[in-house]
């Protein structure tokens, strides 16, 4: 009788662990997109709307120079700077702010807060000789990086979106006739309810 | 008697040697700090120009010789710092079609014509150079963390104000270029 009880406790314990693991898998926040393994946010309802089965699905299947974004800006993250210790300051998803992607007639461009607007991809993702893609080496656990979508975006996130959208409009958007109101705000990307 | 005089001479010599040693050390420190100065005061207002920025001081030499309202910046934004302020100001050229002149961006006061009012005599309009702290040669470069949102905001404000778009907007220096970071 006592032994049976012990088995039952062990069984319950194992079931609990399995349940936790399943919920962690379900809570995947990012997916790596080819050819550079750049992380796309599954947590953003506007960039990864749910499919028929209810699973968040990225709006694009790859992030190359020729990818055309159906909405912009898209947010992507190079997790190289992220550590398993988690974010220390600033961005909810890590030390390095994400990049914001935009369409131009000559291909995708990305906004980096330090480097401004440049053609996609960053030079470090390309073999200097052949120009072939050099995908990011992803660490285990990359898909669980916390976007903290349930809370308000940080001040940095808000500034990043405002500055990136403004810079894109000044560099390309105005000449292309892009309406400023068509660009996604931080609130839209983070899936916040209307103000 | 003879022994006493010798000992006094020895003690005098020791004191002199120590004094010389201390003076040499002090001058070495001063010289090295002057050599390692990160900023250079610029006429007319004595504001500091960043020697640490390869884009604004190539080879450690400032791109301009003064910072007046008529200075024309070969690249922009320039940076000018009154150490009494939390951050250096980003400097821009006003378009020549609008009369030219230097502008500065302050994160609280926005974009205004150079110089700030407190650097001018209110009656005569003559320059009132700022008084630099004695330790100005020891002031460190502005951290990248302080520039990373400030410069894009200053650039966008300047570009929006004067309708600077396309390649002209993209030619404005980024924080990475000001700091001399390697390409991304």
Strand percentage of chain A: 5-15%
Please count the beta strands of chain A (DSSP E, at least 2 residues each): 6
What percentage of the residues of chain B does DSSP assign to strands (E)? 5-15%
Number of strands of chain B: 6
SSE arrangement:
The complex is a heterodimer of chains A (195) and B (184).
Chain A lengths: L1 H25 L3 E4 L4 E4 L32 E3 L22 E4 L6 E4 L3 E4 L35 H22 L9 H4 L6
Chain B lengths: L1 H34 L3 E4 L4 E4 L27 E3 L8 E5 L8 E5 L3 E4 L30 H19 L3 H5 L4 H5 L5
Antiparallel strand pairs in B: 1-2, 3-4, 4-5, 5-6
Descriptive notes:
The complex is a heterodimer of chains A (195) and B (184). By secondary structure, chain A is α+β, with helices and mostly antiparallel strands. In chain A, 26% of the residues lie in helices and 12% in strands. In chain A, a hairpin with a 3-residue loop joins β5 (109-112) and β6 (116-119). With 184 residues, chain B is an alpha+beta fold. Chain B folds into 2 domains: 1-36; 39-179, no CATH class. Chain B is built from 4 helices and 6 strands. A 4-stranded antiparallel sheet of chain B has the order 3-4-5-6, covered by helices on one side. The radius of gyration of chain B is 23 Å and the shape is globular. The termini of chain B are far apart. The A-B interface holds A 112-118, 122-124, 156, 159-160, 163, 166-167, 170-172, 174-175 and B 144, 148-149, 152-153, 155-156, 159-160, 164-166, 169-170, 172, 174-176, 179, 181, 183-184.
